[in-house]
Amino acid sequence: MDFITGIRKPDTTAIRDIWEGTHTGTVKLTGAVHTIRDMGEIAFVILRKKEGLVQCIYEEGVTNFNCKELREGMTVTAEGIVSQEKRAPYGFEVHLNNISVLSAPLEDATLPIPIGKRKLATSLETKLTYRPISLRNIRERAIFKLQEGIVRGFRDFLFSQDFTEIRTPKIVAGNAEGGANVFKLDYFGKRAFLAQSPQFYKQTMVGVYDRVFEAAPVFRAEKHNTTRHLNEYTSLDLEMGYIRGFEDIMEMETELLRYIFELLMESYAKELKILKVTLPETRKIPSVRFDEAKVLVSEKYNRKIRNPYDLEPEEEALIGRYFQEEYKSDFVFVTHYPSKKRPFYAMEDPADPKLTLSFDLLFKGMEITTGGQRIHDYTELLRKMEARGMDSKDFANYLMIFKYGMPPHGGLGIGLERLTMKLLNEQNVRETAMFPRDVIRLEP
Fold first, then answer.
1. Where is 152: in which H helix or E strand?
2. 177, 244, 164: which is closest to 408 by C-alpha?
3. CA 94 – CA 75 distance, rounded (Å)
4. Taking Cα atoms as reference points, which of 263, 340, 277 lies closest to residue 309?
5. Across the chain, what does the average pLDDT equal?
6. How many Å apart are CA 367 and CA 119, to the nearest integer?
7. pLDDT at 177
């Protein structure tokens, strides 16, 4: 009888082992053949591993393998001797003694796009059509490694602030955000929806744990096809109780962003370099009221205010431009949005009930966060729902948490793909979605 006692020590070498000097001399690597540059008696065989690329040197008469039989896409075990080479990735190369093929692509399978290039010189549509292949490109891989760092920073920071991570359902009976842009489901003969937001559930859990967060997908059935919208995206949500005001939420996000960017600088420097990202300054973020922001950009850029209740994309861009020019800040909090454009649970400003104690965070002229303080009083919620013509019976489970007591609380949701998009200065949010879903794309 055999017993499994844990993970066996690997018999192969990682890039980190070589880079940190724990492995010298002869090493054994596994990886995929990324590119081959055949120079005749010598060939440069570039292996792709999870950490990056390794330059290997094939020498005729030395390497126990016929280089002509090697093809891009093969997965191999390669053995050889490490030597220092400043021009190679990570500052070393491996002179090959032997190559063993683990698997090979089909004989007639030619790569549909040149993944070996530093940056894919192809259209976004082509990249998405061949997504399983395009993601093997070093720059494309770096995007989502950096995104990993953002989520990791989000989780680690909130744990340090005594938040509890939760999991909320994505098949729901009600519509948290209002409006008609929901995906409807037949749930065993009952009406159901894909969740637009974890809003009701994260508020519920504030009554349990005080501070909660979730990093998970949300679904919006918006039919417009723009460069900033996806029908499925990742929302970084947090909700916190016993707040003194909605400013506590903005302060928490400021500190959160600072932590994330410090983590990226420390642990994802390689990806930042590949993507040529300069991290923004977050020591202090300016805050401006909604109505004041509209006036500021209207006067400076001679743009007429057309919609007094919301910010148009062009206005967001101008607000971002204004605060970059005036305060050298890529971020700006816009506060006190009109109640007319906020959900029923947004707390109204006691000084002016037409406004709410809510905010958006703009990053380089685009909204990446929506947040604010929520109504925590049962009677006040009923009053606002009635004023909007809503039937409280449709929200019985949600109202239950307030009927039996809730602390003052608030929270926010950050769009992961949008944050990544603006960090990379990309022009389309699909560039920063691993497998984007929009009105026309359901595959791959």
1. helix 138-160
2. 244
3. 17
4. 340
5. 93
6. 28
7. 63
Angle, helices 416-423 vs 138-160, to 10°: value is 120
Single-letter amino acid code for the residue at 240: M
Residue type, 30: T
Q: Distance (Å, rounded) from C-alpha 316 to C-alpha 130?
A: 33
The angle formed by the CA atoms of residues 360, 413 and 138, to the nearest 5 degrees, is 105
- pTM, two decimals, is 0.94
Query: Distances in Å between the alpha carbon of 65 and those of 33, 69, 104?
Result: 14, 8, 15
Name residue 10's amino acid. P
Element (H, E) at 126: helix 124-129
CA 170 to chain centre: 18
Q: What is the DSSP track for 264-287? A: HHHH-HHHHHHHT--PPP-S---E
pLDDT in tens, 346-358: 999 999 999 999 9
Query: Nearest CA to 255 among 154, 378, 343, 184?
Result: 154
Residue pLDDT, tens place only, 116-146: 888 888 999 999 999 999 999 999 999 999 9
Confidence of residue 179 (pLDDT cuts 50, 70, 90): low
